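Assess this one:
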Amino acid sequence: MGKLTWYGNSLSSKEITSNLEKANARMIALQQANEIETLNNKRKSTYLVILVVISFVIVLIVFLLVKQNKLKQSSNQKLETQNKIIFEKKHEIEQSIVYAKGIQTSFLPEKELLDIFLPRNFIFYEPKDIVSGDFYWFETSSNKEQILIACADSTGHGVPGALMSMVGINFLQQNVDRDKLDSPSTILKRLNNSVKNALKQNDIQSKQRDGMDVALALIDFTTNKLVFAGANRPLYIIRNHQLIELKATKHAIGGYTKNDQAFSDNEFQLEANDMLVLTTDGYADQFGGDDGKKLMTKKLKEYLVQISTLSCEDQFFQIKKAFTEWKGSYEQVDDVCLIG
């Protein structure tokens, strides 16, 4: 049998095999084409999903940015409103403090009066915040033969310090008998009692412990005798390029100081051209210089000796200049009062 009959057609075995191989090849090609199309469809679907996700994310980001921008605009408007209110309040407070400065200044004695009794003098007075906790005060005896001079540093600075300074000035004035000026130690003892009573510091439960440090000097023009008493603040006498320090009692006025606290008098015989300096701690405590450190009392003493041969006017300008240059860009840390 060399031939097969298939629906009336005769095919050889080779032809059949060839046809089968071609059919298989077409099937494989079709299968591959289907797989490729399926893969392409999957890729298209993946790309579509990615595109949708990216579009959603972009829309979400745009939405959030728009919302954030609206919130920011709203916040900016609120902030501008708040800043305006703060600025107005700040301006009102500053105006009030400036007005308070006028009141405080009226409590300070007029320097022109001091010039009459001590023509060679200077006062370097530099509040930290417009008004000051530091203050100076003087009073003469009725016969003009004696003068009391005080340089004081109240607790705190700014408005609280200014209130304390007015309390101190008021009580100093009340506790001085102009007919015959008492010793500085007696006046400081009275001042301590007055402050403690006024601020109710005798009550154990009282939390009000403010007070002040005071340097108080009495000069008798007839005898050239100096009597000094200090509450935590000394007095410097510069004579022939040498500095002599009269020590203070290590207790403040008011605060935790006991009611019957005694203060010591230091007597000193003055000579021509002696320079007396009373100061609060604000000058020496100022940060500045190249290293941002405190000036310190030692450096202040050295500088006072260095400029002591100058006129009082020149000493004032040198002291002011030195303080400004030392402070530089640093903030002033405390009120300053220095009397020469």
